[in-house]
Amino acid sequence: MKRRDILVSSVAAALSGWTSAQISAPVRILVGAPAGGSTDTLARTLAASMGPALGRTVIVENRPGAGGNIAADAVAKAAPDGNTLLMSFTSHAINATLYPSLPFDPVKDFTALTAVATSPSILVAHPSVPANNIRELIALAKARPGELNFAIGSVGSSLHMAGEAFKMQSGVNIVNIPYRGTAPAVQDVLAGQVQLMFAAVGNVQAHIQAGKLKALGVTTATRLPAFPDVQAIAEVLPGYESSAWFGLFGPARMPPELVRQISDAARSAIRQPEMQRRLEAEGAIPVGNSPKEFSAFVQGEIKRWAQVVKFSGAKPE
How far is CA 149 from the centre of its chain? Predict the structure, then answer.
C-alpha cells in the first residue's frame, strides 16, 4: 500500500471509529433467513449501497433457522464494534413471546439502527369462497365455525399472526393449515385445497389480477394505492393493522459515533434509486427512521404481538 493510501485509510478509520485493522475487514450483515427471500434480497441491496458510504466492504451472511434466532444470537454475542450487524424482521418481536426462553434479550442485547422497510399483506380467498369483503367473510365464518381454513406459510411468522389477530378481533373460528413455506401454501389456495390466506402483496398480486384469487382486505391502516377498491380490514375491525417489517440492528453497547455513522449510511442507502426499485419489486415501503424511533417501534411491536401470540397458543416449530 502506498504511503498516501495508508494515510487516507488511517484518517478514514479514525473518523469512523474503526481501527486500521478493522477497516480492512468486511462488515457482515447476518440474515436469519435463507438466500433468495425478501429479507436476504433487501439485505444484499442495502449492503451494496452502504459499503461506499462507510468506506468498507459490506457482505451478507445467511444463518437461517429458529425463526431468525440463530442469526440474532450471533449478533447479540458479537463485539460492539460495528463489524457484525443483523438484518431482522417481524419475527424478532414475535419471538419474544413465541419462544419460552431465548439466549438473548430482543431489546437490551441489541442496538436498533434503522427500520429498512415495511411490507403490507393482503387477505386473499379462493374464488369459490362465497364472500367478497371482510364483513361477508366474518358473517360466513360465524355461520360456519371451524369450516373455513387459513393456509400458513410458517408458524410464528407475521402472516400467521396477522390471521390470529384477525380471529382475535373478529371472534371467528377459522382453522390454521400450516405449510413449510409460502410457495406451497399459495399453491394450495390457488387449487382450492385451502380457502384463505394472509400473504405478502408481492406474492399474490399477479394471481389477484388474473382472477385466480379474490382480495378481501389489506392489513394496512388505510387502503393501498395498488388496490383502491379493496377495503382495509381496519374499516371493519378498528385498530387492526399488521405489516411485516425489516430492520437493521447491531450488538448492544455500540459507541454513539458508530451508531450514527452506520445508521446514516443505511438510511442514505434506503433513499438510493436502486434500493427504492428493489423495495417496490418486493411490494415493500421504505422507512429509514432514526435509531431512537426504531428502538421505540421494536419495543411497541413486542408488546403488541405478545397478546396475539398468547391468544394463538402457537409453539415454535
Answer: 24
CA dist 138 and 119 (Å) reads 24
Q: How far is CA 243 from CA 46, 93, 101, 162, 219, in A?
A: 20, 12, 25, 8, 6
Q: CA 70 to CA 33: how far, in whole Å?
A: 10
Q: Which three cell numbers stand for residue 63?
A: 444463518
DSSP state of 121: E
Joined together, the cell numbers standing for residue 214 give 379474490
CA distances from 151 to 108, 139, 167, 229, 249 (A): 34, 20, 14, 24, 31
**189 within 8 A of 124, measured Cβ to Cβ:** yes
* Coil/strand/helix, residue 296: helix
* Nearest residue to 120 (alpha-carbon basis) of 211, 240, 267, 224: 224
CA distances from 261 to 69, 128, 281 (A): 26, 53, 28
pLDDT value, residue 5: 43
User: pLDDT tens-digit profile of 33-91?
Assistant: 988 888 998 999 999 999 999 999 999 999 999 999 999 999 999 999 999 999 999 99
58-62 vs 27-31, strand pairing mode:
parallel
What does the chain come to in residues? 317
Supply φ then ψ for residue 222, to 5 degrees.
-130, 170
Beta-ladder partners of 121: 200
pLDDT at 274: 85
**What is this structure's pTM?**
0.86
Torsion 38-40-45-51 (CA) sign: positive
